[in-house]
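Fold this complex.
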Amino acid sequence: MLGSKISACFDFVAEVGQEVDSLSGILRDEMMRAMLDAPLMQKYSVLKWAGDYRYSDSGWTCTDVIYDLPLIIKRRRTVGLYLGFQISLNGPGMRVGGNREPLLHVFCWRSGPASMKDSSMAFPLKDEGENLQDGSLFVFGDENRTPRSWAFTIALTGINTIEDVRKKVIKPMQALLLGAPAREALTADIGGLIHYEGIEGKPGDYTASVVEA
Amino acid sequence: MLHAFLRNKSGLHRRYLPAKQRDPGNGRVTQEDEVTSTVLGPLEFLPKSSTTLFWTELIRTYAPSFGLPDGDATDAVMRFWPTFGKLQPDLLVELKWGREVRLLLIEIKWLSNLSGDNQLEKQWLSCLSRQERAVALHLFIGIETAEGYKALAQKDVWGGRLVLLSWMQVLNTVFHIRNADSPQLHAWARHVLHFLRLVGIVPFKGFDELSAPEHPIGRGSIFWRGTHGFIGLLAPDVPERAQKPIFFHVSD
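Structure:
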């Protein structure tokens, strides 16, 4: 019985991993495509995707993937931001406030290229100087600086089709890149949005709950 | 492969010739033509309703603003490697709704880069007349779309008509329509899904159809402890609220 469970679990991990890989491909394609939209194309141009993985301590399972795309801010002519996503199945990328759901973080921030060690979402957040807007959008550093540095989170298992990717990831991402506030870009009808709440006396730590549509 | 052989795009058949007739020095990259032919070639043999379904579904998904006529297309004519003077795009698809026509000019890449900086620009401006461009889309299909993006960022002559697609996106459309029309479409989809899986391109099916093992093992993040043997591992039911997060869980 135990043996068959172990074997079944490995089958399951492999299947989950395949979906994570395929979803990562879709996210990269759809994010790239979104950057071709006229209003975004006027502000930014993009370079090439970079990616990284994190493995469990024993090295047996892959727990996180992260990809980012360097954005060149056209009026400054330098890489100023990294737009990307992180899928966390286990570990500090999703272990926040009792949450046990795998998470998809969508971000646009100043550190990169993609590295699970050096530039990823990992709780508790350390010295990020983050502000939480409307419980759903982390804004890092000076809130008034443009373009902003931000991240939001979606429950992974609610993303099952390309329509989900567009509704839950791409549309909010486009709005945020164009400067929309959290209350406009991240509305509850997205479904599966993670709502964070700060914990008193524990900076960088949050409770997390899923906002159902 | 039949299409590639027919238009002399592939030397693969030489592998089947006697050794002295083989051409070991043939270094020309024909991969993308072979893949084009292998994956898209059979579409020509499917019932018209299946061929048109594939192309219209692809466009409606990835270029929704193009505005295809409503309803099912009535005909699709596919021309592989048509020649326009010195230019030879990979495919030209003519979709018809009665008298209404839409054109898809398609450049396909596998592992190679675009030929020259302005290959796509030249194709769009030279292969189609102004009237044709008014009802046409230019599709770039590659393993990655960065090459197409570069072309667009350099000079945008398309005004929204260049659509960058990855093989993964094409495959997702194949997966999506695999049961939708004819048995022939289903068979083609099955082969294409299989072939592309062999080269590492797998469609996204979603998480909600995965079935988790019934009683997953939940011991923090430790999967097994080698020194204590497997017998010590218990597979408890997953509690409503785990003390520590766990990877496996029974879906509700």
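Residues 2-34 of chain A form the longest helix (33 residues).
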